[in-house]
Amino acid sequence: MMTQLMETFQKLYGEGGEIRTYFAPGRVNLIGEHTDYNGGHVFPCALTLGTYGLVREREDRVLRFYSVNFERMGVVETSLDDLVPHKEASWTNYPKGVMWAFEKRGYHLDHGMDILIWGNIPNGSGLSSSASLEVLTGIILKDTFGFDQVSMVDVALIGQDSENNFNGCNCGIMDQFASAMGKKDHAIFLDTNTLKYEYAPVILKDAKIVITNSKVKHSLVDSAYNDRRQECETALHELQQAVEIQTLGDLTEEEFEMHKNAIKDPVRQKRAKHAVYENQRTIRAVEALKNNDVELFGKLMNASHKSLREDYEVSCEEIDILVDLAQAMPGVVGSRITGGGFGGCTVSIVKNDTVDEFIDSIGKAYQEKVGHEAEFYVVDIGDGARKLEQ
Ligand code: ADP
Ligand code: MG
């Protein structure tokens, strides 16, 4: 693949000069959903799927972008003097946003680049192809301009800043953090309030992580996401009248039950309940994994889904079909929606000797019920973003 990308690069941009290559992974969140903007914990891991970048420096201020995945757009040419979002600039707003965020922090980019991108993560499916593109751009800039003082955590924060303030998506820190800081065969137990983190080995013994793509994305995603954030924020303010907390993540289940009536609206109460319980579930799930109790980990994944479906209400019919089918199957340790919701993917832990049957029978049943195919990825947990050896 790299040889082919190199050839495409030279065909598009001409030969000569040094072409460097980089990779940033997508991620899957094992548990801890919609907790990352509520001061709670998350437990994502980087995938071996991700986004590749080939880069050659230029002497002028021109930026040229090309993505093999957006072939139809051809080469998009712009310059370092135009680091503002344009609707028609489409996907290039992501790398440009990261450049903008570096400049904003005083990291001066004094010359342009030719960049070629290729990714093997499905876009818009909740596996964070956008975060991987941001983190990829971050490490390209860090390496190309020698910004050694920029840590990988900074790369994640800069990526989040660009997504929030350049691309207008109010995401938390989880996705960029996982892409930047991932570690092979480990998930990251991250406290999104303090950014303290710990790597936990994911030893599933006789089981694998299987991601199922529903191949639906309901238009509710963005508006509902902002609604949930708003609801949680209001619930937090109400709770703060009754108890001294900074975030919903500060509460245990018992404390929540004791003070929940401070939240006036029953719907808002359910949202906050999810945030509190999901955070505690995540803490417990990591503990279970450390104790080699994969079964308990799976049960907590199932409980996470129930809470996202009933209390947080971010699932949808297609996803529930996939999860119900999975949870009913012997050999499935646990299954839940992953990512923002309203479509996208599920993540399941499936016993090795059940994986083929899982793909076959859930694939068929889903096709029958929904009318289109699901896609399955049996994934490995990979390292975070890095420069590749030539
Ligand atoms: P997700 O992050 O869940 O995959 P998003 O909608 O947040 O979904 O991000 C998808 C967008 O990210 C794409 O529409 C595109 O603009 C950009 N993107 C992701 N991967 C690539 C790629 N390989 N080449 C160009 N743009 C990409
Ligand atoms: Mg995204």
From TrEMBL:
UniProt site positions, description: Transition state stabilizer: R27
Organism: Mordavella massiliensis
GO cellular component labels: cytosol
Every Galactokinase N-terminal domain range: 7-56
Function: Catalyzes the transfer of the gamma-phosphate of ATP to D-galactose to form alpha-D-galactose-1-phosphate (Gal-1-P).
BP terms from Gene Ontology: galactose metabolic process
Pathway entry: Carbohydrate metabolism; galactose metabolism
EC number(s) reported in the record: 2.7.1.6
Keywords: ATP-binding, Carbohydrate metabolism, Cytoplasm, Galactose metabolism, Kinase, Magnesium, Metal-binding, Nucleotide-binding, Transferase
Catalytic reactions of this protein: alpha-D-galactose + ATP = alpha-D-galactose 1-phosphate + ADP + H(+)
Class of the enzyme per the UniProt entry, highest EC level: transferase
Family: Belongs to the GHMP kinase family. GalK subfamily.
Positions of Mg(2+) binding: S130, E163
Active-site residues from the entry: D175 (proton acceptor)
Domain (GHMP kinase N-terminal) ranges: 93-183
GO molecular function: ATP binding; galactokinase activity; magnesium ion binding
Domain GHMP kinase C-terminal: 285-366
Name by which UniProt lists this protein: Galactokinase
Binding site for ATP: S67, G124, S125, G126, L127, S128, S129, S130
Binding sites annotated in the UniProt record for substrate: E33, H34, T35, D36, Y225
Record's subcellular location: Cytoplasm
InterPro entries (alphabetical): Galactokinase, Galactokinase_bac, Galactokinase_CS, GalKase_N, GHMP_kinase_C_dom, GHMP_kinase_C_sf, GHMP_kinase_N_dom, GHMP_knse_ATP-bd_CS
